[in-house]
Amino acid sequence: MPELPEVETIRRGLENKIIGLTISDIQILNPKSFHGDSKSLIGAKVEKVFRRAKMLGIVLDSLSLVNSLKKQNPNKKRDSKKTILFHLKMSGQIILALESGRQKADSENKFVGGHPTKDMLGELPNRSTRIIFTLKESDESKVFKLYFNDQRKFGWVKVIQNSELRIQKEKLFEKLGPEPLEEEFTWQVLKDQLQKRKNTPIKVALLDQQVVSGVGNIYASEACFIAKIDPQRRVGTLSDPDIKKLHQAIIQTLSDGIKYGGSTRTHFVNESGKKGLFLDYAYVYSRENSACKNCQTILLKIKLGGRGTVYCPKCQI
DNA sequence: CACTTGACCTGTCCGC
DNA sequence: TGCGGACAGGTCAAGT
Nucleic chain C: which protein residues 221-260 of A have CB below 7 A from it? Predict the structure, then answer.
């Protein structure tokens, strides 16, 4: 999936465009992709868009919904504020398209008020579209469709109560390791987190979301290269200086990933349907049999923890 | 417990 | 051109 930089890219793009919009309809094309009561979201307004690990959350302020419920049942006391949580897994996409609006499209680039129009985005919906949300401006001046596409159907969308987020009871969050781009993520924290994976190859340990959250196969491979550490090395053999280098490398590669709008191997696109450019700058991922950018040695591909892993046998020791 | 493997799905690419 | 197998950004459950 989309790893941390890809999900963060979508989050940043979406929040500018959907905060304040109201959900007016949800179409579920593949029931297995959606968990929860979709009808309970109709009428709710988007308040915030956040990311935790590789998950994206759309927080709803259900004021209008609460009011309509009160009319029906004034004594019913409940927290009806909800969040729509997304996990894109391997092939998920979240694409926002302007359906209709009063403004005319700019003939040059076909954007309307910064939004790509439908014809820029290829066929939508397409055969991998699983869920379609309809979102409207409060004055109904614009109508958007938010498409959740997912070719491989591993991804999901689920409805949770905001209270579950606050008290960290949501089991999807409670076991996650630290956010690597937050200040709390120091090299000592990384060292502590690695304690329970002493006998695991370091690259496999970096993929464990309980160790660090948000790192996936691309950025784990890149971080090992930047730190000049062989991805096969057992965690227990790493020195403190090794862990310090790895800590810096994780932060660097994830930050670069965000800077270049994420990585596109096949599926990833941002909320406007654009591909990420990070792989043009990657040192090792998907570069097997090519020359190392540092020493020209031919990069090797092996399998670690069942995942393809590319590294430089000379630079990474 | 720590660690590995297979399963979940659809699609593409490569070798025969 | 067809067919089988391996592989693809992730994460579980079940195995050793």
Answer: none
- A281/A195 Cα distance (integer angstroms): 32
- Residue written as token pair 């393809």: A308
* C-alpha to C-alpha distance for A307 and A106, rounded to whole angstroms: 45
- Does the pTM surpass 0.85? The reply is yes
- Which of A17, A51, A52, A54 is an active site residue? A54
Q: Say how many residues make up chain A.
A: 317
Asked if A190 contacts A246 with a C-beta cutoff of 8 angstroms, the reply is yes
| Nucleotide C1 C1' to residue A261 CA (A) | 40
Closest nucleotide relative to residue A205's CA, C1' based: B3
Which residue(s) pair with A301 in the sheet? A310
* pLDDT tens across the length of chain A (317 residues): 699 999 999 999 999 999 999 999 999 999 999 999 999 999 999 999 999 999 999 999 876 555 555 555 554 444 578 999 999 999 999 999 999 764 444 433 445 555 665 555 778 999 999 999 999 999 999 999 999 999 999 999 999 998 777 655 566 788 999 999 999 999 999 999 999 999 999 999 999 999 999 999 999 999 999 999 999 999 999 999 999 999 999 999 999 999 999 999 999 999 999 999 999 999 999 999 999 999 999 999 999 999 999 999 999 99
Residue A265 falls in the annotated catalytic set: no
Q: Is A152 labeled as catalytic in the residue annotation?
A: no
Distance between the alpha carbon (CA) of A302 and the C1' atom of C7, Å: 13
